[in-house]
Amino acid sequence: MVRTANRTTIAAAAAALGVALAGCSAPGGSDGDTASSSTNQITLADAEPVGQYYPVAGYGATGVSPVFEGLLRPSAPNDKELPDLAPALAESKPKVSDGGKTWTVRLKKGVTFHDGSAFDSKDVAATYRAVLDPKSASPIADDYRLIDEVVTPDPSTVVFRLKAPNGGFASRLLLGIAPSEKVTSGDAANSELNTKPVGTGPFKLQRLAPNEATFVANDKYRSGKPEVDKVVIRHVEDDNARMQQVVSGQVDGSALPPRLAKSVDGRDGLKVTGVRSADWRGVSLPVSVPITSQPETRRALNIGVDREALVEKVLAGRGTPEVSPITKVFPQHADVDFTKAKGAARKAEAEKLLDEAGWKKGADGVRTKDGKRAELTLAYPASDTLRRELASAFADQLRGLGVNVKLWGGSWDDIEPKMRTTAVMLGGGDNPYTVDTQAHRALHSRGSASGPFDNPGNYKNAKVDAALEAAQSTSDETEATKQYRAAQDEYVKDPAYVVLATLHHTYASRDKGFSGPAPIVEPHSHGTTWGPWWSLGAWKKN
């Protein structure tokens, strides 16, 4: 599950440094400037704050970043299928031995960091050990706890020894690598690398102000200096404000919610690109709340929701209806549903299930059972336009079933402590290059290592747990797929969420005279690091 809440912590740390950063930066650029007329500069607006660039804190964990590189990186011709994981800082693909428990990676030689220091195995080990160090409070640590140890037999070799076989471990080799001497102990959110990143990537940070970051081409990049000279990223949180900056020419592009993107498509030379993703939206169902405490009622809500209507009306058709966190993006997806009924028959079946579970409609149309009303509070981040619209449409549909939904827009810091008793409009799919972390975080019973957004409704199903554990501990892909599908078979009998759809991320951009690789299947994370700009270092001037 996506740990969006941690971004608040990092952003706060960056903001605290903002005055000092602005004071020591070179002059230039402000939020009111128009996009540069330079044909070799790209100016973009992003909803996420600038100044949170440390891989241990989660930045670049999926192998896509202008600044950092991992041992592997996603590689695909388009977004029609999951990417292959190709060597980046690795010399070749990992060698797997010991029944899937040992992964040996040979490293490229002659690679240097932006500060001129040489890259070798100690940098890889230091970065991974920092993620696993409890003192780092890394928000991505759960994904790496299967690592028993990281060994560096020589400067060009790294050996990962796992606690159990894992066929999806290659996805953990996407993590951006930082110089060992700059990887310090302590909270990753407070690391200097958030605001002074040093990587091996095609761009390096030149200037950081409170609401703007400027990256310049790395003229010593091993594949040659990028043809894009400069990339300016401006933090503009509000969706409508970003749209206005794109339309007015203040920036060359931005990620926009689907309906806003549709409204600007074709205006003044703007083009909207839709990119398939593993990024799902769905509602967590807290088992402590009466109306969502029973498998039967949770199934009823899943049956009664019209996902196709939500995709069409809220996502402007830019999405794919889904019923579980193991979405259609993954080859392990099972073609399951909560019922074979279609259209109006689904709603009728949902109402029948609620009736049979003892929830009867009252005079006001709201169901009650044992004196308790069928009520649910649904939280969403107030600044997220799309989640707000999905939450409102979802609430309207549930009211039609006799369930009263109270909407609450707040900050993640406000929402997080109440997730065991409050439904939340969540996002998932933060690492689409393996299914195991996604399924485990969303569906496995919570444990001591679980993050705040992992299975927030405190769902427990022993059969689902057993299938997920069996799938995660085998290197046999056929067996793993069998177990993931078994977990989905059990899930539709006893769901934890109402998963609604995967998003097709939408980006509005203006032609700057470059061509580059087509977008690939994206994770939950999107914005100026993704979409048309996911591989700016490879862009070529037309």
The gist of it:
The chain has 542 residues and is of the alpha+beta class. It is 24% helix and 22% strand.
Terminal-residue CA separation: 40 Å
**What percent of the residues sit in helical stretches (DSSP H or I)?**
10-25%
How confident is the prediction overall: mean pLDDT? 91
Query: How would a textbook summarize the main sheet?
Result: 11 strands, mixed
Give a count of the beta strands, DSSP E runs of length 2 or more.
Answer: 22
Shape: globular
Poorly predicted regions are 2-32
Count, helices = 12
Rg calculated over all Cα atoms: 23 Å
**Which structural class fits the helix and strand makeup?**
alpha+beta
Which strand-content bin applies to the residues? 15-25%
Write a concise keyword list for the protein shown above.
542 residues; alpha+beta; eleven-stranded mixed beta sheet; four-stranded antiparallel beta sheet; 12 helices; 24% helix
Task: Please describe what this structure looks like.
Residues 1-22 form the signal peptide. With 542 residues, the chain is α+β, with helices and mostly antiparallel strands. It is built from twelve helices and 22 strands. It has helices at 5-24, 121-132, 239-248, 258-264, 295-304, 307-313, 344-356, 385-399, 412-415, 436-443, 462-472, 477-491; strands at 41-46, 72-75, 84-87, 95-97, 102-106, 147-154, 157-162, 203-209, 212-217, 230-235, 253-255, 270-284, 319-321, 360-361, 367-369, 372-373, 375-381, 404-410, 423-427, 497-510, 514-515, 540-541. Helix 5 packs antiparallel against helix 7, helix 10 packs antiparallel against helix 11 and helix 11 packs antiparallel against helix 12. Residues 2-32 have low confidence and may be disordered.
